[in-house]
Amino acid sequence: MPGSTAIKGATATGRAARKVVPRRTLAEWDPARRACSALEILFSQHAERVPDLLPIRYGRMSTSPWTYLRGAAAVMAADLDLSPNTGLTVQLCGDAHVLNYGLWASPERNLLFDLRDFDETLPGPFEWDVKRLAASLVVCAQENALPDNTADAAVTAAVASYQAHMRSYARMSELDVWYDRIDASTPLASLAPRDRKEVRAWVAEQAEDRTSAGAFRKMTEIRDGRRRIIEKPPFRVHLDRPEHRDEAEIARQVFETYSSSVPEQLIHLFDRFTLSDVVRQVVGVGSVGMRVFLLLAEGRSGEAPLFLQVKQAGASVYEAHLEPSAQTNHGHRVVLGQHLMQSATDLFTGWTRLDGLDFYVRQFRDMKVIPDGRQITPYLTEFAGACAHALAKAHARTGDPAAIAAYIGKGSAFAHGIGEFAQAYASQTRADHADLVAAIAASKVETAPGW
């Protein structure tokens, strides 16, 4: 049987990768291998970012080792490249930390659990995403003063979930893997009944509120006879001043030109919306400094506001360590990675290029339910398992699940290696964060209030 032959070949490939990277060596971390400091890597990212936003970036990253980790994907990419990799290639999320998972609305308006951030996506070795998820679990647990054994349990749950689901995907057909979805009930299934009821009620409330209509109610006002987005300086500001006119024009042109990258039938829908207002946003941690705009468009009916978020896309931080992107537009790279990894993606997602800058566009708050670190703390172990399930699904869609499953195996070697690495890299993150705080104290890095 051709299928049986292919699976045997994939299994052989996975087992052969154990000789390239023995699973016990996944635990290794040696900062002495670094060719440059973490701060030097962060400083190298300044060129493509808006200078007046950099102090906010460092203000956010300096808050704690947790916020530092979230902003230091480039540092971890360089660190992961210091050791041999398995060569078992998938579409990397690139920033698979624990808060980059959440609930999204499918085009049919069903809530699905999936990865949610693809700025750094690129083909690469599967274990790099697993390592970033595992390290983030330890740092998140430490941030919230959880015991060491809770952090260990969360990492163990994540690896076990990834391992089990990858074995399951290895037995499924290609179409079954591609059609698989994780609905909103799946992350809640392992909770106690009382907790499940409480979290389900919170999810339902958030999903109803976090829509374009909800944002329209909370984030807009009538000013000078027109609908305007409410400012929240310096994190959300209008671009009316002379120094911002170029940015305002870029945002408007993105709205007018990016529709060529979305399904053709949507152009008829776009024609019914008119751009009403534009603001510049500061979002996340790692994205701070990149150009991000929030656009409000209003439908002819007056009943259908549409918020779109425009984000500048630069090269993935992994491109310095892997093959360059096959997409010449980095907005296209991000959108393609999202379509490859997610089971269902926002219909309005697209990309364009203006003035030599790449951008991608997506709906803002399209029923997105994203918990913060404090909210997941009581359920960290259960949430870790759900995140790893979503990551395994994404990797199975874009890689060879039989080869990955064969490399991981059924024993504890893979889990042991990932667990030890997670603890070691969490310690490194604390040290790197301390270096940033020291540089700020020595006036080598300028900061501004981050939140």
Automatic annotation (TrEMBL):
It comes from the Bacteria. PANTHER family: DUF2252 DOMAIN-CONTAINING PROTEIN. This is DUF2252 domain-containing protein. It comes from Nocardia jiangxiensis.
